[in-house]
From TrEMBL, chain A:
<dbReference type="GO" id="GO:0008137">
    <property type="term" value="F:NADH dehydrogenase (ubiquinone) activity"/>
</dbReference>
<dbReference type="Pfam" id="PF00662">
    <property type="entry name" value="Proton_antipo_N"/>
</dbReference>
<dbReference type="InterPro" id="IPR018393">
    <property type="entry name" value="NADHpl_OxRdtase_5_subgr"/>
</dbReference>
<feature type="transmembrane region" description="Helical">
    <location>
        <begin position="290"/>
        <end position="311"/>
    </location>
</feature>
<dbReference type="InterPro" id="IPR003945">
    <property type="entry name" value="NU5C-like"/>
</dbReference>
<keyword id="KW-0472">Membrane</keyword>
<feature type="transmembrane region" description="Helical">
    <location>
        <begin position="647"/>
        <end position="671"/>
    </location>
</feature>
<feature type="transmembrane region" description="Helical">
    <location>
        <begin position="64"/>
        <end position="83"/>
    </location>
</feature>
<feature type="transmembrane region" description="Helical">
    <location>
        <begin position="260"/>
        <end position="278"/>
    </location>
</feature>
TrEMBL record, chain B:
<feature type="domain" description="NADH:quinone oxidoreductase/Mrp antiporter transmembrane">
    <location>
        <begin position="131"/>
        <end position="421"/>
    </location>
</feature>
<comment type="similarity">
    <text>Belongs to the complex I subunit 4 family.</text>
</comment>
<feature type="transmembrane region" description="Helical">
    <location>
        <begin position="376"/>
        <end position="398"/>
    </location>
</feature>
<feature type="transmembrane region" description="Helical">
    <location>
        <begin position="6"/>
        <end position="22"/>
    </location>
</feature>
<dbReference type="Pfam" id="PF00361">
    <property type="entry name" value="Proton_antipo_M"/>
</dbReference>
<keyword id="KW-1133">Transmembrane helix</keyword>
<feature type="transmembrane region" description="Helical">
    <location>
        <begin position="167"/>
        <end position="186"/>
    </location>
</feature>
<feature type="transmembrane region" description="Helical">
    <location>
        <begin position="334"/>
        <end position="356"/>
    </location>
</feature>
<dbReference type="InterPro" id="IPR001750">
    <property type="entry name" value="ND/Mrp_TM"/>
</dbReference>
């Protein structure tokens, strides 16, 4: 088969599945709907593995058009694919996690009346995400970018009767649009200054020649073109990858069903920004200012979002804040020019975070749609598979040596240590402190959910997640293990969560995997070379880490969590009482939501009302239109006796009156 | 190849309209509807060869027809289209079919007159787009006001008289000055009303500016540009669904087309001089009107304001100069936006009409949870809401994207101001969608709503195909306009100050 046809098949198979399940779901029924979507994604997954395997065995990179979307000024703006190692790896991650989530959904959503619609959406998401990562140009990238945003919007609001869900999805869409505002202007800068093409290869080829070019964004002030362009593009990444201060939508996105939290809001969509910056490395490498900006934003996100994870009681929100913090880690890696490390962490994170989310979903099912960890405890006995896989996922997340997350996160920390660009010392503090925090909140969750007292026995279960009935298992309140369609994906995701780092670190970070894919200016940013210099094999790295600070911090975090939530539960209460102000600050998420809502949402509405009532109704309609008509009317009342009294006389008079006023007004304008 | 295609596109719907009138009173309403549908379909079919037979590689006017009309004044029945006007003849003929279908069951009184008004208006609008003689243009341009005035005044809502008079006076006021401008140009062009001869005239700057103001008063009201826009929300609110669809999809476009056909090529130096004003007013439309749309409580007013905001992109794209060069991205983006807005706004008004027919209210607060009762409708409206928010793969994206891309090349801050539509456009559209469609069933009236019937489904589905088609294959449309736009840009770049 010609490769282009295969790529088309990989991208379009989920779209076909989505269309069938979405448009014909009412006719074909639930089983057929999930079979056809799973089939579509399975085709993509197999194809993606085949493509990656081919590339690893020396197949050439593909960069070619599919069809002409637009031509302007003789330049062709085509939809097209760029299939290199970075793309192929993303394709494998997206389709494999998506496939797991599709299977899991059979169990998780099996009582939902919107079953077919849900499958249609997640397949549509898979298509959109594939279009995003497979693109060879900025327009298609933006299409994928917005399309995943659309599906995210649809899925957060999947239970559209729930007021919180439809608030959250609107918020997510609008916050993302703020990021897209910058992103689109960034694309505009590329089009305007990089030779008129939006094809990656052309733009990257033009970039070195523009490294010192300046533009006047403010008249008289020369700014580096590359810095302006890269920061604008990165603003898009801040929206999609939920970086401070545009992160506020992600925790609320947990209103959506759990499978999509795993797929979209942890493993794939939110990593689009990380992918994008890595893809654009030939641009970002040319602006140290932009890199520093990225580094600081990432550090803030990594550290301060971690703090918020500590005080959450909703199991999904803990994982959500953990995702925010980990996205911060990836962004930090981008900022120190360690793009391969960022992508590596993206990959390992995709597996263990999808696992943790799906595990949380399994717990929620087992608890009959309870999400509050204060009503859980001791679940390991009742849900052995969920318990064990979640433990593996948590160990991967906190960076336990030899687990997947260890290799990627430790590499980030070392990369930051080796970097000297402005902001790297703050970043180093953030990512090292983050290790303790990550371990602490992860195992706080782990202990609260799986160990300790069986608190679900004490509390009366009130079903305030009203969308679901009691899950049909009659005798409520005793947790139960989930069906195999749920546990199988957990097991399958647990495997890479443990081993993928060990296998992949050497080829991905220190081999040729990203050669000619990611561009690094090694002279200015020698971070990757220093990492390579210190790397002596995956085993050696694991053993060596036992004597380093991050390992002991992680261990300390776990021990503290054990002390606080297993051994001496009075300690957290004491802290809460003593440090009330800090707790309140965290509880209110640094008040960012309130500020945004108060300033932007209410402010826009207030301004809109003002412009409408005063501008449109009072000044234009009241004064200009009706006023002039009244003036003319009064005038004609004086001379009424000369008039025939027919309506057209008045109409003529009104026209003349309005004309006169307009003429005066415009001659005034023109005079200036 | 049939001769006189443009005449056919003009007169087929007008003759069909007269036939519909001949069916008489409401006892023959059924017949009137079918004649109207066949007539509108015939009008659309005869317009298709204009698109398919258009020679993209030839600049200049095509399908030209010329015959003397009033010989003593040297006025001609002179028709022809370039890659710009051709698109609007086709769009207009297409929209007429949608409008006839949209009013099928909703209009129960004076059916024949209602349908006839739309058909006749359709022909007149085609005439305005195809006219190459200024007086012929003027006649069509003025005549098409009358059916619209009647549509609002007869089949409109409770304040229809206020709205229709406001509409009529507002839009009439500028056109008198336009006529004066034409007479001046007639003298200057050696006693000729040919628009193409107007294009070649050398005119001093002061006169250009005066003429520009005359054209501006005529066309800015139609677009409508801020601050002469307040007639539009009133007209929309009172107009029946079909009226709103045509008003938004087509009538507004005549104003923008006027700038393109008259103001820019006849008065390039004045256009350049006044471009900052035009850009400023356009950005006010995008930002100010976007904010006003956010706080509307009436769905139709909201979409009407959204229309003004989207039309801001059209006038913005047409007046972005670098030196004396218009920007190709921006001009073509403006044109794409005009066509796209034709589909999207027609679809949005159709959606509101569908709900209005069931609940007889346009208040957002009277709805809530419509998706529970009308899932198919909710899916359609989601698509159109997203198109209204400029989502890629819908037609709504292409025009805004192109204008913003062009604007970055001209002035970063103009682009940034225009790009705020990404946020405001999504905010007012999706916030309305949330309050109307999402949520639990809002009240007992909503609980009784039934999903779309076959006729409504058909209209929405055709519009959905158009919106997606243009989003996925914009080159199909854009490639038709390249040469005409290039000609325009080259022409405008050339100063006419002797």
């Amino acid at each position: 088969m010609e490769m282009k046809s295969l790529y088309l098949l990989i991208a379009l198979a989920p779209l076909a599945g989505s269309a069938i399940a979405g448009l014909l779901g009412w006719a074909i029924g639930r089983v057929a709907a999930h079979l056809v979507t799973i089939g579509g994604v399975a085709v993509s997954a197999v194809g993606a593995v085949y493509v990656l395997n081919g590339l690893l065995n020396g197949a050439p990179t593909f960069d070619g058009p599919v069809y002409t979307w637009l031509t302007v000024g003789g330049i062709d703006y085509s939809v097209g694919f760029l299939i290199d190692n970075l793309t192929a790896m993303m394709m494998v991650v997206v389709t494999s996690v998506s496939l797991m989530v599709h299977i899991y959904t059979i169990g998780y959503m099996h009582e939902d009346p919107g079953y077919q619609r849900f499958f249609s959406y997640i397949s549509l998401f898979t298509f959109s995400m594939l279009m995003l990562v497979m693109s060879n140009n900025f327009i298609q990238l933006f299409f994928g970018w917005e399309a995943v945003g659309l599906v995210s919007y649809l899925l957060i609001g999947f239970w559209f009767k729930k007021p919180t869900a439809i608030f959250a999805n609107l918020k997510a869409f609008l916050v993302n649009r703020v990021g897209d505002f910058g992103f689109l202007l960034g694309i505009g800068m590329v089009l305007a200054y990089f030779g008129g093409s939006l094809h990656y290869a052309d733009v990257f080829a033009a970039a070195p020649g523009l490294a010192t070019k300046t533009v006047q964004i403010f008249p008289g002030v020369e700014w580096s073109l590359m810095t302006v362009t890269c920061i604008l593009l990165f603003i898009g990444a801040m929206g999609k990858s939920a970086q401070f201060p545009l992160h506020v939508w992600l925790p609320d996105s947990m209103e959506g069903p759990t499978p999509i939290s795993a797929l979209i809001h942890a493993a794939t969509m939110v990593t689009a920004g990380i992918f994008m910056v890595s893809r654009m490395s030939p641009l970002f490498e040319l602006s140290d200012t932009a890199l520093s900006f990225i580094l600081v934003i990432g550090s803030i996100t990594a550290l301060f979002m971690g703090f918020l994870g500590i005080i959450q009681n909703d199991i999904k929100r803990v994982v959500a804040y953990s995702t925010l913090s980990q996205l911060g880690y990836m962004t930090v890696a981008l900022g120190v020019s360690a793009y391969p490390v960022a992508v590596f962490h993206l990959m390992t994170h995709a597996f263990f975070k999808a696992l943790l989310f799906l595990g949380a979903g399994s717990v929620i099912m087992g608890m009959h749609h309870e999400q509050d960890m204060r009503r859980m405890g001791g679940l390991w006995k009742y849900m052995p598979v969920t318990w064990f896989t979640s433990l593996l996922g948590s160990l991967a997340l906190i960076g336990t040596p030899f687990f997947a997350g260890f290799y990627s996160k430790d590499s980030i920390i070392e990369a930051v240590a080796a970097s000297h660009i402005p902001g790297s010392s703050f970043a180093y503090f953030a990512v090292v402190a983050g290790v303790f925090i990550t371990a602490f909140y992860s195992f706080r969750m782990y202990f609260l959910v799986f160990h300790g007292e069986e608190r679900f026995r004490h509390v009366h279960h009130d079903d305030h997640h009203g969308h679901h009935d009691d899950h049909g298992h009659g005798h409520a309140h005793v947790p139960h293990e989930s069906p195999w369609v749920v546990t199988l994906p957990l097991v399958l995701l647990a495997i890479p969560s443990v081993i993928i780092g060990f296998i992949a670190i050497e080829p991905m970070l220190f081999g040729d995997f990203f050669k000619n894919v990611i561009f690094i200016n090694h002279e200015a940013h020698p971070v990757m070379e220093e990492l390579a210099h210190e790397f002596h094999g995956a085993v050696g790295m694991g053993v060596h880490s036992l004597s380093t600070l991050p390992f002991w911090l992680a261990l300390g975090g776990v021990a503290t969590a054990w002390l606080f939530y297993m051994k001496a539960p009075q300690i957290p209460a004491m802290f809460k009482a003593k440090l009330g102000a800090i707790h309140t600050l965290l509880e209110n998420k640094y008040y960012l939501d309130d500020i945004y809502f108060g300033v932007f949402a209410k402010g826009s509405r207030g301004l809109g009302t003002l412009l409408w009532k005063v501008g449109d109704q009072l000044l234009i309609d009241g004064l200009l239109v009706n006023g002039s008509a009244k003036v003319v009317g009064a005038f004609s009342a004086v001379v009424r006796k000369l008039q025939t009294g027919f309506i057209y006389s008045y109409a003529t008079a009104m026209i003349i009156g309005v004309l006169g006023l307009m003429t005066i007004w415009f001659s005034g304008l023109i005079a200036h | 190849m049939v001769e006189n295609l443009l005449s056919l596109a003009i007169w087929t719907p007008i003759v069909a309209g007269l036939l519909v009138l001949a069916t008489g009173g409401d006892k023959n309403a059924g017949l009137a509807r079918w004649v109207a549908l066949l007539g509108s379909l015939a009008g659309f079919v005869v317009s298709i060869p204009l698109f398919t037979g258009f020679q993209s590689l030839n600049g200049g006017m095509q399908f030209v027809e010329k015959a003397p009309w009033i010989a003593s004044l040297n006025i001609h029945y002179y028709l022809g289209v370039d890659g710009i006007s051709m698109l609007f003849v086709v769009l207009n003929s297409f929209t007429t079919v949608m409008v006839v279908l949209a009013g099928w069951q909703v209009i129960q009184q004076r059916v024949a007159q209602y349908m006839a008004a739309f058909l006749i208006m359709s022909g007149l609008i085609n005439g305005a787009f195809a006219a190459l003689d200024a007086i012929l243009f003027y006649v069509f341009f003025e005549a098409m006001l009358i059916p619209m005035y009647l549509i609002i005044g007869v089949w409109g809502g409770p304040r229809r008289v206020y709205a229709s008079i406001k509409f009529f006076l507002y839009t009439l006021l500028g056109s008198l000055l336009m006529l004066v401008a034409f007479i001046y140009l007639y003298q200057k062009a050696g006693q000729s009303f040919e628009i193409l001869k107007f294009h070649a005239l050398a005119i001093p700057l002061s006169v250009q500016i005066t003429l520009f103001v005359a054209f501006f008063l005529s066309f800015a009201v139609k677009v409508p540009m801020w601050p002469v826009h307040t007639w539009l929300p009133d007209a929309h609110v009172e107009a029946p669904t079909g009226g709103s669809m045509v008003l938004a999809a087509i009538t507004l476009k005549i104003g923008a087309y006027g700038f393109l056909r008259f103001a820019l090529p006849i008065l390039p130096d004045a256009s350049r001089e006044l471009a900052p004003l035009m850009v400023g007013l356009s950005l006010v439309a995008v930002v100010y009107i976007g904010l006003v749309a956010l706080v509307q409580t009436d769905m139709k007013k909201l979409v009407a304001y959204s229309s003004i905001s989207h039309m801001g992109f059209v006038t913005l794209g047409m007046f972005l100069f670098t030196g004396n060069q218009l920007n190709q991205w921006a001009v073509e983006g403006a044109l794409v936006q005009m066509v796209s807005h034709g589909f999207v706004s027609a679809a949005m008004f159709m959606c509101i009409g569908v709900m209005y027919d069931r609940l007889h209210t346009r208040n957002i607060a009277d709805y809530g949870g419509v998706a529970n009762k009308m899932p198919i409708f909710a899916a359609f409206m989601m698509l159109f809401a997203m198109a209204n928010s400029g989502l890629p793969a819908t037609s709504g994206f292409v025009g805004e994207f192109m204008v913003i891309m062009g604007a970055v090349q001209v002035n970063f801050w103009v682009a940034a101001a225009a790009a705020t539509t990404l946020i405001f456009g999504a905010a007012y559209t999706l916030w309305m969608y949330k309050r109307v469609i999402f949520g639990d069933v809002g009240n007992s009236h909503v609980a009784e709503m039934e999903d779309v019937n076959k006729r409504e489904f058909l209209v929405l589905a055709i519009l959905a195909v158009a919106v997606l088609g243009m989003g996925l294959l914009p080159d199909l449309f854009v490639s038709k306009m390249h040469l005409s736009v290039n000609d325009l840009i080259a022409h405008v770049a050339h100063s006419k100050l002797q």
